Fold these 4 entries.
Entry 1:
Amino acid sequence: MRCALASRGSHLARPAPGVGAVTDVSGHQSPPPSFVLHRTVRVMTFNVLARIWEPDHLPDKGASFAKRFPTICGQIDTASPDVAFLQEVEPSTAYRARFGAQYHILFASKAMASRAAKASMTTTTVSSSGGDAASESAKCASEMTEQLLGQTDDGEDGAALLLRKSSMELVEAHIVTCFDPFMNQHDTRLLPSARVARQFALLALCRHIPTGEYCFVAGMHMKANGYNAPTDTEQSEDWRRVGHARQILERFQAIRGGRMHIPFIFGGDFNAQPQSTTVDYLVRNRAVIESYATAGGVTAPPGPSSSRLKQGPRDHGDGSDEDSQLLSRTIHHQTWLNFESAMAMARPTRDDPEFTLLVSQYNAGGWSATLDYILLEKGRFIVTSAWDVPPRALCGADAIPYSGSDHLPLVVDVAFLH
């Protein structure tokens, strides 16, 4: 079986462009055909597994990039996306050489993003009001676009945004950086600190050539490790991801500025399960953040989150207890960006896939999780078809024989709504 996507019998076929009315594959009532543009955009997200992580993530540590790369390319070729969000792209030169003729490729590594933030090379809003400010901002956007189109870094994994040249005109591109959040005893709002985060999003404004419609597309690989966290738990990582996501969404909104009529697509590996605080924040615009307030300051608590405020001793793991107060605060992002999961829209159960990552050997045991998403701005798109992930019985304990990575790609076709 060369390619999981090609052989997956239950995936929904892509409708022929311009033929008939587009229907919502979930079976829910769709808008009248007059409100739907019949030409669709195929969107893919795929964590392709960087070479540097092969020893930790591959079964028996036996698969090399040279062996995996043809399978990865087969997945992308078979899907033939108009827009592809790729994570852990390393070596980037291999992807540029393989796909550069077909796609505009925007790339940045984590090191590049950090340098950009430290050099104050963050994005600026392209003003619609005209004048010198708009001209200067457009110049900055043009320079950033050229930089992202030409960058390579084969020493560290990064992210790439692929735009098919025949269907997606690249108008402008941005690298959106952020800072690590912090909490203190008097403020749990996850405000940005002075420490630059090795987190970023690639954002592009595109024109869909078949329809003439414009859209923003953005890809991101969110934080997986909770460095400086009290414990290496999902909870200690989650509040950092929410802090990063809050800044990223606010900058998305600033870049869009007065262009509210242009919709957003946001995808990537968010390193968070569907019921996590991170996905709550992105999809439901609410995140319950907890922190322990003690005489020594505030830290993120281990364990599941709740909405309670409670007082009691905390075990610090060193045999001592300290009176502490568990603070709870609900965080909302103050933007007009409200998203929904494209895969959940497409599936009859209205939920995300059971897994998007499968690896049998990771640390002491295996790992199966749903970490990858394609998010659509609410009310701006419908999903016309989706390629579901293969059943677990077909994949077994590892995704790599089918995808060339420890992740499986997600692919959806979406149509613009007026």
Entry 2:
Amino acid sequence: MEKRRLTDEAELRRIYEASPLALVFFKVKGKEKSPWLISQGFCDLLGHDRESIASELASGQNEVPCEDGKPRSVHVTIKGKKRQFLAQSQVLEFNGQDYLIVDYVEGETNEANRQTEALVDRLETIPGQIYKGNLWDAVFRSKDIGVFWKDAKRRFLGVNQRFLDYYGLQLDDVLGKTDEDMAWNEQNEAFRKAEEEVLRGQPARSWGATIAKGRSQTIVTYRAPLYSEEQIVGLAGFFIDVSEQQDKIDELEKEALQDSLTSLRNRWALDHDFIDRFAGKKIVAMIIDIDLFKLINDNYGHRFGDETLKTVSQAIRDVYGDEHCYRYGGDEFLVICDYVPESELRRRDQVIRQDLLQSNILGTVVDIHISGGYTWGRPENLQAFWSLVNTADKFLYRSKENGRNQITGGPFFDKK
């Protein structure tokens, strides 16, 4: 069995002693193996402290898994209480000293596993099928990970208990079926293509939605091919429920695409929105800038400036709607909307300007003036879209050069 090398023994102890995984590191000297590091996860699992566990493991009454790396069913007896585990080992080396790291997963053989083992025993007599040796190398038993394996036609040959509990099924409900038969994946085509790639020899990871016990859940699934005599005869994989993480990702993505001061979407949202909403459509791009905003900050302070930005953003939002308005940067705002004639754009511009006169900012009444630039076109790709936006920006600067407090625009001509 290939050895891995440690680079920092102290760092290893610091990390793994606090690990929630049930791990034990044994120092190996000849045929003797003495416990050297016991993780907090193993202490929690057994309900005893490290000293007690180390003493029992060193007493010779408990079997230490061998060094071949294959999963083994072992019993561990601590304080007279016997527990059954699936243990898998890995040899590590540091400064000439070998360590055997053992990962313990607790579990009695349940009905699903007994039936699955019986099924695999039957398959061992069929040439070209999946054998127990290469099957169990891919199986990772866990209360949080659903494990499955399939034949070359993507039909389930077995699953673990977590899989059955997650979907609320019995083993007979699954065996011999494909994902399409079960109709539980909301992205059936994507999952099917991923498994076809695996059966061509390419491991795959998929992220998508599945229906479990009548509810839509988000899972991430990993799959790898299974071989017999150098031929791919099936696949094995596991999935983890990441619904909670997906909710957090969605929330973080929303925050990343939203300006914290004005609550408008920011410029980083534009690429995403172009693909979903604007590609190939005739649209208007308009950039609006607050006139002499630096003087507002200098004369009244940054808090006053922030409130001015909020006031202007709200005036634009009231006319164009949240889904069309962006804070483009600094005191610039961007509007992307469906095409309307120039006369309508100028009418809307006047509504915004009127709304900004006699604005009450922190108890001070001021007139806020803006300049704008606009253009319209039908961008077919992201490069053309940004050229459209840049054209609107050029028209904005023409408004400023002509004395500010006005709007200027014209059609977009893609120079590609």
Entry 3:
Amino acid sequence: MPLRLGPAGVPLSCKGRTIVEGMDDITVLGLDAMEIQTVRTVQPKHFDQYWQAGILSWDSDIEMNMHGPYYAELLGNRRERNRSLLKMESSMQAGKILNARHLTFHVGPYGEYDPGSAANEQVANVFSGVVDRVRSIWGDAQEELDYAAFPWIHESEPSLVGIETSGRQELWGTIEEVLEVCNHVDGTVPVLNMAHIHARGHGMMRTSEDYAELFDRVRETYGGSKFYCHFAGVEHRMGNALHYTQIKKSDLKFEPFAEYLAEEGDWMDITIISDSPLLEHDAMYMLQHYDKARQRLLEIRARDQRGMITTTQSTTDNENLGSKDYTDKIDYIVFNSNWNFEKFVYQFKIPETKSLVIKYAIEKIEFQEKGVYYIDEIALNTSNVNKWYVSDSIGFKKLRLISGKLAHSKAPSPIKNV
């Protein structure tokens, strides 16, 4: 499963504080994604950094993304909507230079609309125009010479327009609203902000089953396997997100999400951006928990596989006990109880002369080419014995042979190999 993790902005540990230097730090930390924040508007002085970062991302394996203005009023009056679209235009232009894979935007408050189909239809109309604008900016043939140094403009697909879920009741952006609009507007992708979904759902994302239910709903409604997510701890009250926190201090834990991704996320191509105040530190925290979840899953699968092999081998041995040719090759068959002895003799007609009963003999001893196992006064030469099901740490003090079976008298003493 392709999984990319990175911070929302230049890493806190980066000394230079430029985008390119931040990308270098991300590579050193083992991360492979980054989101550039244009919180209010795009500053012209930053375009040089965008150009350099775009070239570096094209030549490397770092996925670059851009977040548009946080405050938007796409459901407001015409003046408010045009003001928001003007800010979004700057982000679209910068995303082209940056080689951004995703351009994430907020919708803003419901304004004069009530939650429902009318508001969703208006949002769909707005984002249909946004997608058309991104495609026209990205593939304008007249700018071929101007952007010859940036091959991704004409060799890659245009940026996907992301519509982010919101974390407050008065803002448009429930998971249902976002999925409905993205399902009707080609070129858009839902941006699943887990902190917002958790807060708006009154703390709903708590177990791996909650994440499974969420992504099943997204797959059924929206389709596809590519996902763009934000993750951070969050303080919330009464269905509203108050502010982001570090993951460890929130009731939104990443471990269930990591468990879901490890167990059921093979079909997904997902990018997760850390919105935490700790940025790259929590991004690495998420990566570590995902690796741990994958390791636990591999250990469980290996253990189950070993159990299946052991069961298959035991079944094969039991089936072979009914074959005279097989039993002729064995010197003795040791049982750990009289009940097991009687059951096997009855079922497989095993000769009693080749049967031994030693209680508590439960572990399989590897075949010994040389050596004698002494059980006090009785020595059993193992140089020709093919199989002994005898514990190497439990023996018995006085053993006597009765009708082809070994019985014991009292207290156990260790078996010694000499």
Entry 4:
Amino acid sequence: MKRTLSIIMSAVLMTGVFTGCSLGNKADSGKKVTITFLNNKTDINDTTLRDFVDKFEKENPNIKVKCEAVGDYYSVAQTRASGGALPDVSYLMPTLTEKEWGDFYVPLDDLDISDFYFKDLYTYDGHLYAVPIQMNYSGIVYNKKTFAKAGIDTLPKTLDEFYAMCQKLKDAGIVPTTPIYKEKGVLGAYIENIAPCIDPDWYANISNGKDPFTKDSPVGQVLTILDTIHKKGYFEEELMSQTSESMKKDLATGKLGFMFSQSWLVPQVVKAGADSEDIGIFPFPFDNSGVYKTYLKPDMRMAVSKDSKHPEEAKKFIKWMLDTNYDEFLKVMDCSISVKKDASSYTMPQFEEFKSYNPEKIEFVKNSEKLSLIFNKARFSFDDMAHEVIDEKDVQKVLDKYNTIYNKAYDAVSK
């Protein structure tokens, strides 16, 4: 039967627990094989990542690893998966429902790897299908020197103070932040990371009825924040001017004040030229309560393709990266925070600063099957909603439009 992909909200992530016996020598057959590792690290694929993988090949001379990096990662992965050509090792596609994992990936039950956070989200029907490479906290990544130049000596704890901070940056001739408008995923990340902090149960309750997108709903509140940032001129005037790479350089050099993102951005800004001690991260103050919250979730989940002709060698490669050489892997991949429960694992130094703000941690939970089906049927994303707010400058108009789309999908799924 031909395999097909479900298109659902890109925020859907799952995690699992490693159980069972060791891989043993099942991959050491003596026959030389080649496996492919599909990744999104276009900047290091042929340099530091290649050097790292070369070490694996020296330790395992019968296994050759081809590293292939692509920019539009999930679109490429989906196309190949649909055609039965998903590479041996890749990231679990967030477009799949958990019931579909077994159609595209082999279970990893025989991996023997140290304990990590998010133990249940990647296991379905008793089988583990993927393992995350790191975890991320949501927050505002900022340049400390730039803030000092603008006279910002106290970080905001309320939304009003956040807007005042933005105004100080603008008055100092510094672009406060950017939506990276021409790239998908950046604006939608505001909703995906802030909405659960506003109401941790919102995702669980959204599928209980129609018209979920009200002005007071978490999505409505976040869209209002984006609308305010845009109307007050806290984005750059030319919205199409920034890319992800130029944003990192501008944040590193002080041309840009801050970026709302996740902790993974910190090491990448440092890599773009900033001194590590000049880059910090603090929780986004989305309301005036004065209480910090942050959204915690796993990132990039390694899996072995069901199309692989060498699944045991592929699993051995994953274990080598995510267990035996995990600390080095985190640094090579510019990761921020270890997902391992072993406190000795590598973690970026800025994490200590972030913890000092004592934010309430809202952990990622997977969507209900019904919600996944609704989003699949509706075929829209939070990123679409956020972009339209920037275009329309009318939050209620956008909410009404997407309520109509959502309601039609809800009725179709509820029949």
